[in-house]
TrEMBL record:
This is Beta-xylanase. InterPro entries: GH (IPR017853), GH10 (IPR044846), GH10_dom (IPR001000), TAT_signal (IPR006311). Belongs to the glycosyl hydrolase 10 (cellulase F) family. The lineage of its organism: Bacteria, Pseudomonadati, Pseudomonadota, Alphaproteobacteria, Sphingomonadales. Residues 1-25 form the signal peptide. GO terms for biological process: xylan catabolic process. Its EC number is 3.2.1.8.
């Protein structure tokens, strides 16, 4: 079992320094962000969390940590009855010990592909809606309550909108109880179990010109949540840049910046805060040469963050990893030339890249929060 008192004691100490970790370097991304009232962080877990040098890089650069996989259903739930918190607790304890804040990801990944198989095989009995609601509320309530007071921001629902159609996805839970009901229940249960935490809807809608259906679908969902009084506080914009076009020779894709601004205007117009939760750049179609590629990735990042930071509602920027060595993108659709990808602010040897300077420069140029 987690020593909640120990964790909470550390969290109370962290509260005095909410934006900076204990070992954060003075010119770190976290420090630059803190000087503007922003939080900067990244994700850890699995193999990369076992690397002491990588942990040190995170402590040096981050004010905020999110477990990459350890808080997902697939990691926490071996079956319908039990929870395995060991991996998640280890990350939370390490973050708290190093005076970093923690985000939770994700209480409900509303996408069938990413839920454990047993959720589909589960016997929902004669009253499936009731059993699905029980299972979901039990999961969200247990996880949110365990980390309440330590985690101050949860991705409550992740990727509920089908990016091709804009409609809500179907999962075993939503088939039993309805997608709206499942999403509502997740937010309401999270609010009850962790009343002080920011509750986020998180998704990968983008500024690409073919992203209209996804953006519209997310706005429809957020409007419906607001109308029903569902407690959602913020929109998490994942920020996996370039991903849709990563196998085409068109550079990083063609953008529709006006549509993206309209989308962000509409979301913030509902009173929602914004977070960039999973920033990285899928560089498949970019030239092989590292210097050329790194500059294009940095320029793209800078343009994106300048736009995002023009919204005062944006107070958190998270990269999905700090070093190219451990990016999830390395395992996803290899580059045609077989070279490693360079999607993150530090290279495989943990040396800073132009993307790191682009993030710092964008934050320095932003208005204080
Ligand atoms: C990814 C992890 O990085 C991988 O290790 C895992 O195999 C799949 O999930 N959107 C999200 C994140 O919300 O949870 C995903 O993380 C990346 C896309």
């Amino acid at each position: 079992m987690i020593d909640r008192r120990g964790v909470l004691k550390g969290a109370a100490a962290a509260a005095a320094l909410p934006l900076l970790g204990a070992a954060t370097a003075a010119d770190s991304l976290a420090a630059v962000a803190a000087s503007k009232g922003l939080r900067f962080g990244s994700t850890v877990g699995g193999k990369n969390f076992e690397d002491p040098a990588y942990r040190a890089l995170n402590v040096a650069q981050c004010g905020l940590i999110v477990p990459e996989n350890a808080m997902k259903w697939v990691a926490l739930r071996p079956d319908a009855k039990s929870f395995d918190f060991r991996a998640a607790d280890a990350i939370v304890r390490w973050a708290v010990d190093n005076r970093m804040g923690v985000r939770g990801h994700t209480l409900l990944w509303h996408s069938p592909q990413w839920m454990p198989d047993w959720v589909t095989r589960h016997d929902y009995g004669a009253q499936p809606a009731r059993e699905a609601a029980r299972l979901l509320a039990d999961h969200v309530g247990t996880v949110a309550a365990r980390y309440a007071g330590v985690i101050d921001s949860f991705d409550v629902v992740n990727e509920a909108v089908d990016s091709d159609t804009g409609g809500l996805r179907e999962t075993a839970l939503s088939k039993a109880m309805g997608a709206e009901n499942a999403i509502d229940l997740a937010f309401r249960t999270a609010r009850q179990a962790a009343p002080g935490a920011q509750l986020v809807y998180n998704d990968y809608m983008s500024w690409q010109d073919d992203g209209g259906k996804h953006r519209d679908g997310v706005l429809r969902l957020l409007e419906a949540l607001k109308k029903r009084g569902t407690p959602v506080d913020a929109l998490g914009v994942q920020g996996h840049l370039g991903s849709k076009y990563s196998d085409t020779p068109t550079g990083l894709g063609s953008l529709d910046v006006r549509a993206w601004r309209r989308f962000l205007d509409d979301a913030t117009g509902m009173g929602l805060d914004l977070l960039v939760t999973e920033l990285d750049v899928h560089d498949n179609p970019l030239p092989a040469d590292f210097a050329v590629r790194d500059k294009l990735v940095a320029d793209h990042t800078r343009a994106y963050l300048d736009l995002m930071l023009s919204y005062p509602q944006l107070k958190t920027i998270m990269c999905w990893g700090l070093s190219d060595k451990y990016s999830w993108l390395q395992g996803l659709r290899p580059r045609p030339d077989g070279l490693p990808k360079r999607p993150l602010p530090f290279d495989a040897d943990f040396a800073p890249k132009p993307m790191r300077d682009a993030i710092a420069a964008a934050i320095k140029a932003a208005a204080p929060r």
